[in-house]
Amino acid sequence: MSNRTTVIPFGPQHPVLPEPLHIKFVVEDETVVGAIPQLGFVHRGLESLVRTKDYNQMVFVVERICGICSCIHANCYCNAIEDMMGITAPPRAQFLRVIWSELHRIHSHLLWLGLFADSFGFESVFQQFWRIREHVMDICEATAGNRVILSVNVVGGVRRDLAPDQIRWMLGRLDELQKGMRELTSTMLDDYTVQERTRGIGYLSKDDARLLGAAGPTLRGSGWEIDERMHGYAAYSDLNFIPVVENDGDCYARSKVRFYEVLHSMDLIREALNRLPESELTVKVPGNPDGESVFRVEQPRGELFYYIRANGTKYLERMRVRTPTFANVPPLLHMLPGCKLPDVPVIVLSIDPCISCTER
Amino acid sequence: MYMLKNVLRNLSGKPATRLYPLEEREPFPAYRGVITNDVERCIFCSTCAKVCPTDAITVDAKAGQWVYDPFLCVYCSACVEKCPTKCLMQVPTHRKPSVTKFRVLRTGTPRVKKSAGAKAKAEGSAKDKPESE
Amino acid sequence: MFFEAKDVTPDTLLAEVQRLANAKCRFVTMSQTVVDENTLRLFYHFDENLTMSDLRHNPELCMWAPTDAKGMVHLRMDVNKDAPIPSISSIYFCAVLIENETQDQFGVRFAGLPLDYQGGMYLEGEVTHAPYFTMTTVRRPAAAAKDDAKAEPAKGDQA
User: Which CATH architecture has domain C6-149?
Assistant: First the structure.
């Protein structure tokens, strides 16, 4: 190694990082040649709480693994336990779970679009994205009680219901959200500065994305048409769902994927609200879970994977969570060498790092 | 250049934020707020204490005491749903921050066995017991 | 109910993983669970990489019952916790993170890791026993007698 290299630490505290992550960059004259990650700043050991909390109380623990996608963690956990016991939630509960999951996806992608714009200095559009995100937060608060941690999923169904006047109000707010998104489309996607900062940066080829185990928009931005929602869990088989795919493999393609996913999620919510069936909300849970089960859902960041093992008592034996950011860190380490130092925040943010999910 | 219309509209309109705490928004009816116990109807069965994910509720069935720690509570309302007599309620008021930690104590009539036939001791008196940490 | 998984041993593991890599599978993760005092059971989960177009052209793949594999291939391997386990990072580099995490949390060693934190990825230097190997009622054998003194791990306990 020549003596022109410097080692620069990035994080855990950094203005563009939403959560603490530490990477040591080996830099030669403004070009990054190597990157060594260090995780473990937010490790809370939540998987070991299965010893002291029974499987119904674990729903509340699992929701608090991540602060942005909490309802989807609970959804996956409840589906895995229901699979193990052989019960299915009633149809209205499945549609309501879809509606709240898609609302979470919209608010997470709007948060990310704002942070991504902030990473290359475009702070005014950052604030505008967060301003229209408030419509989604108000919908969540009015229907489920809280802005982010909704606590509506239980094993066997959901706990809250939507009244018809709430549905009309929700559709009105979604229309205002769509108007806001339409105004910001050309700013985010056609602006000359945005394209100069994001096109051609952080390239991930199609084969590398598969070999390195990427998930979510990182995978879909490189040309793979893979999305967990196409497997049809929880009422997605009844809705018109199509994955959003781009072929370029750079940061611009990934931001386009997330932008269009917001619009597609709004269409899915409107369709689900129109077709909401009438049924009861929960189904009776027979006894304790016993056995092993595996379940995957689509989080805003990618594919979330749960492995649960139970032995017939009310405490589970093992719960293993694999979050998509954990799978996206190796592609990040592959994308970083060869880029210039000012592009580093753009690339790190383009995989959408949610480190508190990664190190539950 | 594409944001010019947006910027001009923001300059000429009113701000998007409200001046909290001078003006407060009306809370939504489904908002998860403070948990209260109507202790006259409580039968001290400890179901709420068993279901609570953070162990914020302690119930002493013999003395007829229901102790609730509002700072351990995560306001998930699992206790409200499982209560058999529906004496627990969640009101949409937000609990304001406080400078001292305290626990809420409610005392009511404990269940007596029908064979004993004795009358109850304390009669539904409610008091807050401040405990500084 | 248990899902279908193929059993492998540490000797046949690399051959099996290479076969899956040639079949264009994607590595999802590795799950660990404790079977008894000396044995750790590892599950390797692979995804067959079915795209939306595959599902459109083959509708029989679309409906899955809960016991089906849901488009995944699982491998199950029981290992002794003292023997070094072969690492699959030479075929799938992304496995390096999860193998480091297993080293930290369960106190096992992997052989042939290209990026090895040696138990330091999550844990500090002064933590001497693995938090998760005491998951069920398993205690570590008497060779590490000082572990029983601090039998309940400091991390991960209910606050």
Answer: 2-Layer Sandwich (3.30)
